[in-house]
Amino acid sequence: MPDTPDLPVVRTVAALRETVSGWKRRGFTIGFVPTMGALHEGHLALVREARERSDRVVASVFVNPAQFAAHEDLDAYPRQEAGDAELLAGAGCALLYAPAVEEMYPADATTTISVGAPAEGLEGACRPQMFGGVALVVAKLLNQVQPQVAVFGEKDYQQLIVVRRLVRDLDLPVEIVGSPTVRDGHGLALSSRNAYLTGEQLEVARRLNGVLAEAGARASAGEPVAAIETAARAALLGAGFGHVDYVAVRRAADLGEFPGGTVDGPARVLAAAWLGRTRLIDNMAA
User: Fold this and answer.
1) Which long-range contacts (CB under 8 A, 24 or more apart) does 239-244 make?
2) CB-CB neighbours of 112 under 10 Å
3) Residues 6 or more apart from 38 whose CB is under 8 A from it?
4) pLDDT tens for residues 202-260?
5) Which of 28, 67, 94, 107 has the least C-beta neighbours within 10 A?
6) For residues 107 and 236, what is the distance between their CA atoms, to the nearest angstrom?
7) Is residue 66 within 8 Å of residue 133, measured between CB atoms?
8) What is the mean pLDDT of the chain?
């Protein structure tokens, strides 16, 4: 895809670093927003957050094969680079980095990253391959862009915690900022996968945030975590979800369990549930 009138596009590490190095020589600070494309208002909110915290914002569009299992929707994942570029330009992005798979993962590459505690359970249990792939691509992207600040959405809350631990453990010189989940007028968290939902499924999906809000209120009131999780799972199934992978009340800082069985500090309620072939995730503070 050629550059849009407002947004240059680079596809190699060399071209990316040439542009970013030039900005840094001029004294500009760099913000970064990694995405897999199919952008919506939630992604654009991340770009605007990065723009407030830096002089120049780089966004990447890369559908990362390392975080998809063989049975998942890698090939079907929506790709719309031209439209994404227009949206990014309107949100204040200064550069789109859109590498090919071969640029990110040379054929003879052998390095992997294994992540521990924050990646265990929840999404890590449902998608065991995912966080190793996320950690690898995020480490590579942060090294390639070398920003001062990178913004990630709280909608993928476990991913945010994993990235923060990755940056801390590897001593990467970047500030990781979590940006609040963007929701539609009914409270449904915006997601690229929402486009897969039928009208009837969309009505059911919009009940997810209400179930999480109720679970969070019960957790804050001191009810036992196990009872809250059981009730929330039943509520989701009663609302019309076909299957619930998990509902969990965890410590907000590291997603560990509350050892006493009740919430005794900042918490997060997290859930993943299916509507047909579409898997939705969401979370809320409690």
Assistant:
1) 239/204, 239/207, 239/208, 239/211, 240/204, 240/207, 240/275, 241/204, 241/208, 241/273, 241/274, 241/275, 242/273, 242/274, 242/275, 242/276, 243/273, 243/274, 244/271, 244/272, 244/273, 244/274
2) 10
3) 77, 78, 79, 80, 84, 192, 195
4) 999 999 999 999 999 999 999 999 999 999 999 999 999 999 999 999 999 999 999 99
5) 107
6) 44
7) yes
8) 95
Q: d(Cα 88, Cα 62) in Å, to the nearest integer? A: 14
DSSP string for residues in 4-56: PSS--EE-SHHHHHHHHHHHHHTT--EEEEEE-S---HHHHHHHHHHHHH-SE
| Residue 43 annotated in active site | yes
Structure tokens of 7? Answer: 């947004």
Chain position carrying tokens 């968290």: 189
The token pair that represents 14 in the structure block: 């060399």
Separation in Å, CA 194 to CA 74, 113, 119, 198 = 16, 30, 24, 9
The continuous run of DSSP H or E covering 215 comes out as: helix 208-220
Cα separation, 144 vs 134, in Å, equals 15
What average pLDDT score do residues 123-144 get? 96
Structure letter (DSSP) for residue 118:
G
Tokens of 231: 């009730």
Stated pTM of the model: 0.94
What is the maximum span of the chain, computed from C-alpha positions, in angstroms?
58
Which of these, 115, 105, 173, 120, lies nearest to 145 by C-alpha position? 173
Of 43, 71, 186, 243, catalytic: 43
Structure tokens at 24: 């840094």
Q: Tokens representing 26?
A: 């001029």
**pLDDT value for 78:** 64
